[in-house]
Amino acid sequence: MDLSIECVVEGGNPMPSLHWLLFPSNSNIENEAMSSGLLQSNESYQEKDISRSSAKIQRVLRAHHNATVACIVTHVTLVNPLNTTILLDVQYTPSFGISRIPGFGIPIKESISVSLKCDVDSNPPSTPVWQKDDSAPPVLQTDDGFLNFTSIRRNHSGWYKCTSRHLLSEYSSIGYFLNVRYDLNDLDTVRKELIEEDNSGSSESVEVTVGGEVQLECPSGPSAAIPCWAKTGNDNDLQPIGPSSNLHIDQVLYQEAGEYKCIVGSKNENLEKLRVYTLHLNVVGGPVIYTENRTIVAHEGDDTRLSAEFCSNPMVNKVFWIASDRVIRPGTAVGQITAHNITSSTSSYCQVATLTIQSVTPIHSGEYNLIVGSGKTLVEATVILSVTKSTRNREPVQTSSSHSVCSKMFDNYLIMCLVTSIFTHLKH
Fold first, then answer.
1. How far is it between the farthest Cα atoms of the chain?
2. Is the pLDDT of residue 357 over 60?
3. For residue range 54-65, what is the model confidence (pLDDT) as tens digits?
């Protein structure tokens, strides 16, 4: 949200000078957001011996928590400036940090001691709760977020995540797959298990917060070749991704939700069938807006279309446009401006909002804001429309001979570029 602050000073002749300072907390001294987060909105003014000045933080971030905002007052009669301060108490949703002992990258072998640790950063503070495969973990967790395995076993393998309840809402970390390795002394038993697994198939469900990262791990056996990954498209066709033992996705988008398949072959001649593991990636989080173009240039008299895709899980419950300080809801029209009904997108959890303007004129130039909301969260995207004067009925302008030469040179250059492009296309 944005935050407006006002400083009021009594007395003083001539009028005192008022200045604003923002002091970060000790934990955010090097945060770049703190250096540009405070904006003074207007000059100081005085009326009836009262001086006033206001400042505004355009977008409050978690980095502003425990920061100090100070109003500094200087005057010719003061030896030392006066000041008054406020301390910012910023509420923010949980972010999760998962660590492991032994550290990530070290193989986990059966019977060793393993600890998982979940750290939750939120205000007000919230308590971490571990889950394994969306149910209670196999061992008790401590109050400080530790999950301790004294002697880890193979059945402890699975997807672990850390959850927390904060301000009447549930939040979750990305999933972490704990893979416990064990000795394979009986190769015939292993072959039998793999064949049965091949016949029955396997399916997992993974949940990740939008913007987070996730690693999908393929549970291939020791005799398996490198797995191949694919994603199921809208028409149930498989879109190949590539070969890898695991699939890592950084900064997850809503568009990346869906069904992923890990296809595993075998190096062993007795196992000729392919095994397919299905993993469902579920993306949760607040609303996000994706605009086709942030700036649109239209010619006067043309019909213009503004469009944006918005995604959220859970789905949004508020959608409206703001144009020239007028609120236009989907399915309604104001003058030449029509906000069309919301349509479904090709991506999961996503929809499309469209605004059209008939026969645009320069008066339609400006900002058009799309507002979408889910629960108590509102997000905004701005599209700037620039309308240029029409040149359709203007008389031709006489050009000088030097201009004609330049035009001819440009035409020749354009033809040469087109020929080069066609030649390159035919060559390939």
1. 96
2. yes
3. 888 888 888 889
Please give the model's pTM, rounded to 2 decimal places. 0.43
Residue whose structure tokens are 């955010």:
28
What would the pLDDT profile of 264-300 be if each residue is shown by its tens digit?
765 554 444 567 888 888 999 889 998 878 888 999 9
For residue 147, pLDDT beyond 60: yes
Task: Kindly report the three-state secondary structure assignment for every residue of the chain.
Answer: CCEEEEEEEECCCCCCEEEEEEECCHHHCCCCHHHHCEEECCCCEEECCEEEEEEEECCCCHHHCCCEEEEEEECCCCCCCEEEEEECCCCEEEEEEEEEECCCCCCEECCCCEEEEEEEEEECCCCCEEEECCECCCCCECCCCEEEECCCCHHHCEEEEEEEEECCEEEECCCEEECEECCCCCHHHHHHHHHHHHHHCEEEEEEEECCCCEEEECCCCCCECCCEEEEECCCCCEEEEEECCEEEECCCCHHHCEEEEEEECECCCCCCCCEEEEEEEEEEEEEEEEECCCEEEEECCCCEEEEEEEEEECCCCEEEEEECCEEECCCEEECCEEECCCEECCCCCEEEEEEEECCCCHHHCEEEEEEEEECCEEEEEEEEEEEECCCCCCCCCCCCHHHHHHHHHHHHHHHHHHHHHHHHHHHC
Tell me the pLDDT of the chain averaged across its residues: 80
pLDDT digits (tens, 9 = 90+) for 55-102: 888 888 888 899 999 999 999 999 999 999 999 999 999 999 999 999
Which residues, including other chains, have CB under 8 Å from residue 317's CB and lie 6 or more apart? 373, 374, 375
Q: Report how far residue 145's alpha carbon sits from residue 132's, in angstroms, rounded to the nearest whole number.
A: 14
Residue 333 has pLDDT above 80, yes or no: yes
